[in-house]
Amino acid sequence: MDNKITFEEIFEQNERRIHFQIRKMNIRDPHNEYFQEGLVALWNAYETYQPDKGPMATYFNYTIRNRLIDRLRKENRYEENKKKAIHEELTIRFDGNHHSNQSKATIPLVQMDNFPIDNPDFWKQLKSQLTENQWKCVYYHIIEDMPYKEIAIMENTTVDAVKSWGQQVKQKLQNPQFHQKIHLEIPTKKQ
């Protein structure tokens, strides 16, 4: 007869161990995603445990903790990549919009390197200085990456109207007084 303890018994005895590791690492887990991760780690530890290698409790703690750390690292990499992608997209969108002077040289409207795009206060300040339609254009076209046509359909207007909202925003962003209103510091180029 096999005297092996079932996983259900192991789970009942060690469920608090998972919660302990989550709390110890200060992880917010409103949807129990980390608990599920810890549960999978507990299962893996149960399946691979070798009694001659050390105490079961130590092995469970080690396996659960490392699995949670791996999950945290993965989510942090995802968030960093997401921020980089947003920054690159905004850089492309704004640096691609130029106006030309009489000598046919193009001058960028705004250098995106100076925009604090990952600062929520910046977006709130910008929103407070735009009309509702101008903010819709910024939000949907720049942040949500929606084409003008989709925005026009959603807002029950024309594509030209949506483009006009965007043009108004670009004109505001060219104005140094507007930069002061939104607390945006654009360093001047030394000549």
From TrEMBL:
Transmembrane segments: none annotated. It comes from the Bacteria. Residues 127-173 form the RNA polymerase sigma factor 70 region 4 type domain. Residues 11-77 form the RNA polymerase sigma-70 region domain. This is RNA polymerase sigma factor (Sigma-70 family). NCBIfam families: sigma70-ECF.
